């Protein structure tokens, strides 16, 4: 007779092993899913705020990498110039300040713009009138340049000729980073000229009317010892070109280049003789 009890025991054992295997695989699947979900919170943001934060962090990391790489490139170029015998002079202080490649100190102004607080008198006012807009920031920036600003920062970042600001909602974006109000300018220049430029600018005057009417933030103070950092972002130009006949290099660089060319020709003539 067939051993039915042995078969039943075998089936029971096989069923137990199958259940254990399924449970083990399920546990591994749950653990992997939890790990992916945890990591996915960083890789796949669930809303625009998280996406903006993720992109801001990525931009900052890439900026830091670019700064380090530019320093390496500068070192390699200096080494190549030394080996080739072409010794270009170091840019003077004026050139470094104008190009924003040097930190600077001096007297000037600190200007702050801020959104208006929500209170009883503004509860029924159009919200668009209670916030700082892109054109307000641009107006202050343009007025300061017109007033003879020699160096400027906005939210601690050095402003250069290709700097662009744009507002999306109540957030300011510049150089790939985002900022919330209050928006702070630090500018080095003749304080009297800068103040006069702000007073005379029509767009800035219109903003100050809203300061009086709705409580938008506006403060200007004279500072004697401002310290502005150097600009560390990219300066590559994709569309701008120097017109023919216009000298793009400083006199010192041109003289060094001409001297190197003449020296090379003399060496060739001497070798040929």
From TrEMBL:
Where is composition skewed (Polar residues) in this entry? 249-264
InterPro entries in UniProt = DUF881 (IPR010273)
Residues in the signal sequence: none
Family per record: Belongs to the UPF0749 family.
- Region annotation (Disordered) maps to 249-273
Its name, as the record gives it, is: DUF881 domain-containing protein
Please provide an example of a Pfam family that matches this protein in its UniProt record: DUF881
The organism's superkingdom is given as Bacteria
